[in-house]
Amino acid sequence: MQLIAGLGNPGEKYRDNPHNIGFRTLDQLMDALNLEGFQRRFNSEFFRTNENGEVTLMLKPATFMNCSGEAIAECARYFKIPPDKILVISDDLDLPAGKARLRDSGGHGGHNGLRSIMECLGTDKFLRARIGIGRPSTFDNGKQASVTKYVLGKMEETKAELCLQAMEKVVEMLVRFVRYSHFQSTSISIPGPEISTTG
């Protein structure tokens, strides 16, 4: 048994925010597998599927981002899922839009959702798919826009398209994880202006 958790904030007003890329990627994965019908469980949207004899649980915590670990840890404890069978999908400010990285461990990089998971699981040894959203723009006066407003705001069109393409590539890899329990650390780069200017 394995668990895939997409990170985000519940509620329609957050749906398309950069911080909700984890939720959106999990939704795309469900579509790719022709699955539907999340249930409410573990203070989350919850789905269970069996592909080729491998049970995969899918989770979108409804705890809001900063407490994501509570729902994930509760689900993992109930089903006795070890951390190395948990895959977390999140946004990443330090990766430009159009880039993504799959890793089998690592720090939280200032991401409060990942920080919460590490605290609740007591380890950083869980799988993660980090999808780049880039940093907010720097203004002419040299100051950078608020990170909070950026991750909870509307992404500019060019970045949004690059993120979408990166998400699609990540979903392809997640399908293999669901069907064959196959996970490989790798990096994804989508050619585009965000890559060339900040990558």
Structure description:
By secondary structure, the protein is an alpha/beta fold. The protein has a single domain (2-198), classed as Peptidyl-tRNA hydrolase (Rossmann fold). Helices cover 35% and strands 23% of the residues. It is built from 6 helices and 8 strands, in the order βαβββαββαβααβα. It has helices at 21-32, 68-79, 112-121, 147-151, 157-180, 193-198; strands at 2-6, 39-41, 44-51, 54-61, 86-92, 99-103, 127-132, 186-189. An 8-stranded mixed β-sheet has the order 2-3-4-1-5-7-6-8, sandwiched between helices. Strand 2 (39-41) and strand 3 form a beta hairpin. It is globular. Mean pLDDT is 93; it is low at 194-199.
> In one word, what is the shape?
globular
Q: Which fold name fills CATH's third level, the topology?
A: Rossmann fold
Radius of gyration: 16 Å
What's the pLDDT, averaged over the residues?
Answer: 93
CATH architecture name: 3-Layer(aba) Sandwich
* Structural class computed from helices and strand pairing: alpha/beta
Q: List the uncertain runs.
A: 194-199
Topology:
Elements: E1 2-6, H1 21-32, E2 39-41, E3 44-51, E4 54-61, H2 68-79, E5 86-92, E6 99-103, H3 112-121, E7 127-132, H4 147-151, H5 157-180, E8 186-189, H6 193-198
Parallel strand pairs: 1-4, 1-5, 5-7
Antiparallel strand pairs: 2-3, 3-4, 6-7, 6-8
Helix pairs in contact: 1-5, 2-3
